[in-house]
Specification:
Elements lengths: L6 E5 L9 H12 L5 E3 L7 H13 L7 E6 L1 H16 L5 E6 L5 H5 L4 E4 L6 E4 L1 H9 L11 E6 L7 H7 L5 E4 L9 H12 L1 H10 L1
Parallel strand pairs: 1-2, 1-3, 3-4, 4-7, 7-8
Antiparallel strand pairs: 5-6
Helix pairs in contact: 2-3, 7-8
Pfam family, one: UPF0227
InterPro entries: AB_hydrolase_fold (IPR029058), UPF0227/Esterase_YqiA (IPR008886)
Protein name: Esterase YqiA
């Protein structure tokens, strides 16, 4: 039996969706180059606890022999950090890697200022952001990174939404690329995809070379 393809999980940010620019750009790249992976870009529930359970359940479905590669943008980076450590809690030998794109570090602190009516930018779904959402986010906090070498931090200093220095401090033990300027949306994401794939697996890079 052939080994299962690696699973790439792309986790979008707050009030975003699989239809976001970066998610769609990455999906199109994977499809165009026929990368040897299974790509999953879930639409996250608004409740952090539900989102976490959904992510972990899918990541563990294939067992410990399947590589899991996580890409987390903004709030998705916070979820991704929790997901990586949770996978390792269940399967210590699982080959899991994580790429963070302008990640939120302490989103539960930021959300205190956003309590009240919210609307998803893409689906137009309206909901109420409550203290319970904040508490659930806080519950997902990870204190210690067990495999910092398997985490790549990508930040831009021009991020107008999050303080990039918090991410640099939080992930100080991880390999990092810090670009001057840019924005929270991460300008030039298209040109950064090869960097992401190189970090995740040499197999992806080889597949891109063959497709070209």
């Amino acid at each position: 039996m052939a080994p299962a393809k690696p699973l790439i999980i792309y986790i979008h940010g707050f009030n975003s969706s699989p239809a976001s620019h970066k998610a769609q750009t990455f999906q199109n790249y994977v499809q165009a180059h026929d990368l040897p992976c299974e790509l999953w870009i879930p639409e996250l529930p608004v409740w952090p606890g539900e989102a976490a359970r959904m992510l972990l359940q899918r990541a563990l479905e294939a067992g410990i022999c399947r590589p899991v590669h996580i890409i987390g943008s903004s709030l998705g980076g916070y979820y991704g950090t929790w997901l990586m450590e949770s996978i390792l809690d269940h399967c210590p030998d699982c080959p899991v890697k994580l790429v963070l794109i302008n990640p939120a570090v302490r989103p539960y602190d930021l959300f205190e200022d956003y309590l009240g009516p919210q609307k998803n930018y893409y689906s137009d779904v309206e909901y109420e952001l409550t203290q319970e959402h904040v508490d659930q986010l806080r519950h997902l906090e990870i204190e210690t990174l067990s495999r910092p070498d398997n985490i790549l931090l990508l930040v831009q200093t021009g991020d107008e939404t999050l303080d990039y220095q918090q991410a640099v401090a939080r992930y100080a033990e991880c390999p990092a690329r810090i670009d001057e300027g840019g924005s929270h949306a991460y300008d030039g994401f298209e040109t950064t995809i090869p960097v992401i794939l190189q970090f995740l697996s040499a197999h992806y890079v080889a597949a891109v070379s063959l497709s070209g």
